[in-house]
């Protein structure tokens, strides 16, 4: 199943189901008004949602208007982002002479969750001098996860998989990181691709708590990278168990993988500018690629079997205040 | 005005107004069903709420049953906690040989906000070995704050002042802090005293974006500290402006002061065990005070003119899972 949220009734929109080819949709009217409700009541609504999905598979549905779509969860009660691709951290440490992070646990911070941007709207940011960067990553959305859930039991709480652009402001990030308090200013609202996909619909691409798909990232129309999701050092089940060690996770919690990064970065490129700048610094002593300017456009999706299961993030950064 | 939330209709409860002496209440029926709604529509509902408050002042209202009260916001879209009392950081660094935090900005992290405990319910935590500690602090709740709001304009967005116990797990906190990612496991759900107070109702105790009141903290019935809120290095207006630098703040954002701590700690004591242990370590080479055990009870309030404007946090930690 592929779930999406149509702008209708702010701020949480209307839950719809989308056909496998992304062309048609049926609203989940009478089953679940919003995706948040569906996640809270998943066991009670899943069978009805799957019946609706069967009608889509049989050819029913209206033509999907992609410009109507919001982020699948336009706001969420909790967003916990990991950093599970070790190559990314290693490159950043090597390039900038940072000490290795001393921990034997998954890395994770709590981020802003009261607003997630759609994959197509303009992204208003205050200042180019902040070092505007994207981060392409996968995420999962859980149902309610009780405190103390172990990794072995965690995967059954993964209800949906999503594709995220975790906007990052690189001039601020290291300053905030040095305090030990994590990021506030360096991490404004994320963007999310339009379709939230059930793990079963990903087939073999969902295995070991990882998404075995590459990204396809372009910046202003030029190839930027196609790193692959399989190289997570820990899987989403480990990230969920880590998050739930001392708290219940509310239904609708979003857990992120951190920016996707591969050991073979010389071939596959990167999913964020900062990492490319680190590679350039290691090779040439200084970065060559600039951060984003207002008007620049980034496109991120995860191609699979000729399709795009999560849909596409394709948006500009602009100067200004958000609505 | 003093606002509170009565358990009625989960999870956000019912908004009530409470008399100045805390003895009587009137529900805000027909004005705002929940505190979150009131914060989103403050300009539209404030006059009606003040008319209701005048009826309370005239003697109307039912007897308040304190055991019915939830946290004023039982859940919030955003909780950003500062660390604005410099004595606390200095003591911790001196006792544990930590480097000083290199920053010229307010310290702030984003914490768990999908659940705030009431001031009287048991606090379920998984393990005494995690180093269970309280942190008494003040907080403010804002209405919508546009991105880029400066400190000079920020105070008008403070709609309510609250008293918080920011539960902290001290065996985990330094491990997470070293990663630079902030705290996830070390910061489970906070507790909040029952009454959220409008700044005007605090009189002279609300000045310079600070709360000029002491806490009164007891642990298992014994005096623990009475540090004063006036020693914030930056005020709540500075914390709000810091938080809003690259994001809008959603209505109902909670901003915390960080644990209250005074230069004269030898006389006034502390608002958390960890700081007392730091003082003991500096004086005697090792800590003498233990962290909390299951069954231990902490009581925190802010006495003012013989009353207690925020009501009282008085609760036990217990072994187990949250509901």
Describe the model.
The structure is a homodimer of 323-residue chains. Chain A has helices at residues 35-40, 42-57, 86-96, 151-154, 173-178, 236-243, 265-268, 273-284, and strands at residues 2-6, 14-18, 24-27, 62-63, 79-82, 108-110, 123-125, 132-133, 136-142, 158-165, 168-169, 191-192, 196-197, 206-207, 210-211, 216-219, 222-225, 254-256, 297-301, 313-319. The first copy, chain A, has two domains: 2-68, no CATH class; 78-319, Fumarylacetoacetase-like, C-terminal domain (Fumarylacetoacetate hydrolase, domain 2). Chain A contains eight helices and 20 strands. In chain A, the strands form five sheets. Chain A has a six-stranded mixed sheet with strand order 6-5-18-9-10-12, with helices on one face. Chain A has a five-stranded antiparallel sheet with strand order 4-3-2-1-13. In chain A, α3 (86-96) crosses α8 (273-284). Chain A has 323 residues and is an alpha+beta fold. In chain A, β1 and β2 form a beta hairpin. The first copy, chain A, starts with a strand and ends with a strand. At the A-B interface, β6 and α5 of A face β6 and α5 of B.
């Amino acid at each position: 199943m592929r779930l999406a949220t149509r702008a209708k009734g702010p701020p949480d929109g209307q839950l719809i189901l989308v056909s496998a080819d992304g062309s048609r949709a049926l609203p989940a009217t009478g089953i679940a008004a919003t995706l948040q409700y569906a996640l809270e009541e998943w066991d009670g609504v899943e069978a009805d949602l799957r019946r609706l999905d069967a009608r889509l598979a049989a050819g029913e549905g209206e033509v999907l208007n992609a410009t109507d779509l919001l982020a699948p969860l336009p706001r969420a009660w909790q967003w916990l982002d990991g950093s599970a691709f070790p190559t990314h951290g290693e490159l950043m440490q090597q390039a900038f002479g940072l000490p290795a992070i001393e921990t034997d646990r998954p890395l994770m911070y709590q981020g802003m969750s009261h607003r997630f941007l759609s994959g197509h709207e303009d992204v208003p940011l205050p200042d180019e001098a902040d070092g505007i960067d994207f981060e392409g990553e996968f995420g999962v959305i859980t149902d309610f996860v009780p405190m103390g859930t172990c990794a072995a039991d965690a995967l059954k709480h993964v209800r949906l998989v999503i594709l995220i652009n975790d906007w990052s402001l690189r001039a601020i990030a290291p300053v905030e990181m040095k305090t030990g308090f994590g990021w506030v200013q360096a991490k404004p609202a994320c963007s999310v691709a339009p379709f939230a996909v059930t793990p079963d619909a990903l087939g073999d691409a969902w295995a070991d708590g990882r998404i075995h798909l590459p990204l396809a990232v372009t910046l202003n129309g030029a190839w930027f990278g196609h790193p692959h999701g399989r190289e997570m050092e820990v899987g989403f089940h480990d990230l969920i168990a880590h998050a739930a060690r001392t708290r219940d996770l509310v239904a609708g919690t979003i857990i992120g993988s951190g920016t996707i990064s591969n050991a073979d970065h010389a071939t596959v490129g990167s999913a964020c500018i900062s990492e490319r700048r680190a590679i350039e610094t290691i090779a040439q002593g200084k970065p060559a690629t600039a951060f984003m300017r207002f008007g620049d456009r980034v496109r991120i999706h995860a191609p699979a079997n000729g399709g795009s299961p999560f849909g596409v993030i394709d948006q500009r950064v602009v100067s200004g205040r958000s609505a």
